[in-house]
Amino acid sequence: MERTLTKSITYMTLMTAFDFTAFYVLNSRIEVALGFTVLSNAFASMTYYLH
Predict the structure, then answer these.
(1) Which residues of 18-45 are buried (b: 16+ CB within 10 A; e: fewer)?
(2) DSSP 1-51
(3) pTM of the shown model
(4) Cα torsion for 45, 48, 49, 51, to the nearest 10°?
(5) Can you give the residue ranges of every domain in the chain?
(6) How far apart are CA 21 and CA 6, in angstroms?
């Protein structure tokens, strides 16, 4: 169980960093990149839960 939790946390951390970087590169505004990152992660979490 500990390994699964560690993998999940690591994966979410890496994907959040990747999302933020991609959004920032596309629009060069930190506020917009943060907003899209939060929305993206919220949507992914809800999709995972509902799946």
Answers:
(1) ebbeebbeeeeeeeebeebbeebeeeee
(2) -HHHHHHHHHHHHHHHHHHHHHHHHHH--HHHHHHHHHHHHHHHHHHHHH-
(3) 0.79
(4) 150
(5) 2-50
(6) 23
Residue 5 identity (one-letter amino acid) = L
Tokens (6 digits) for 5: 């939790």
Contact status, residue 20 vs residue 33, Cβ threshold 8 Å: yes
Confirm if 37 and 16 have CB atoms less than 8 A apart.
Answer: yes
| Model pLDDT for residues 1-49, shown as the tens digit of each residue | 888 889 888 988 999 999 999 999 999 999 999 999 999 999 988 888 8
